[in-house]
Design goal:
The protein has 297 residues and is mainly beta. Helices cover 3% and strands 35% of the residues. Strand 17 and strand 18 form a beta hairpin. It is elongated and about 120 Å long.
Amino acid sequence: MRKFNIGDRVEVIDKYNVPSIGSRGTVKCFCHNRIGVEMDKPHNSYHDCMSKTRGTTTKPQHGWWFEEESLKKIEEEVQMKFKVGDRVRITKSSPDYVEESDVGKLGTVMSSDNSDRPFKIKLDALTCDYEYCWCKADAIESAPEPTTERKLKVGDKVRITEGARGYHDTFIGEAGVIIQNDGSSVPYRVDMGEQDFIWCKRDMVEAVTEPVPEFTFMQKVWGKDGDDYIKGNFISTLPDGRHLVDYSEEDEYDTGSCYDFYVEDTLFAKDPTEIETKKMTVAEVCEALGYDVEIVK
């Protein structure tokens, strides 16, 4: 009497086969004393369990012939711990399946089956020449969804977060404006008002959503300087109400970025020295003056 039947789920229990111990598959056919099993995962050394009477009985590169003592029947499939689409982190390496360098990397479950390594993980970061790995449930753990972190730029208003704890404790919760990004590991120079400046990493600040400003970033503006007006590019309005302007384009000494601050009513969107020409009809001129006029050559 046969120990297995067509459709039985089986697992390899000896090492004298190409499919490794723990590999799983489904019984598809019998040939004399051999059992044709369609393995869950393909392999270049597998075949299709072809026989003269039945022809091909498994998917290409999925089949293998076994002796009865090489297999055990799987009575009950274990319920999947993760589902397709879950975000996971690799926690354990495994020879031929997961490199040591992959431990700690994040990925997404692309598929699952009832094999010994049921979860196909697509890694966020490629390793060598592959982007997928097969893992057991105990080799991965749930991971948070990836976040799309907004890139900050000069002029952005930011709030100092708990990430600055131990560095800028007195400013946590306070708002400031990024006035420089030098591209280093601590790139953002933040103006906190009252002539206080601090340098921050990305995780020390968060963007602050503000109402539509009076001026927009890099808008041409004119700042009052005594009796003169200097043209520059508007950067941002600081927490204390001052307007930050970059006037490097007007710097006759070409010293690079030059900034100045202007309070309310000293910064203008148009050049105040430019006389505006207004077109008027004769009737409009008479009405504005309060008496009749005559146009003469």
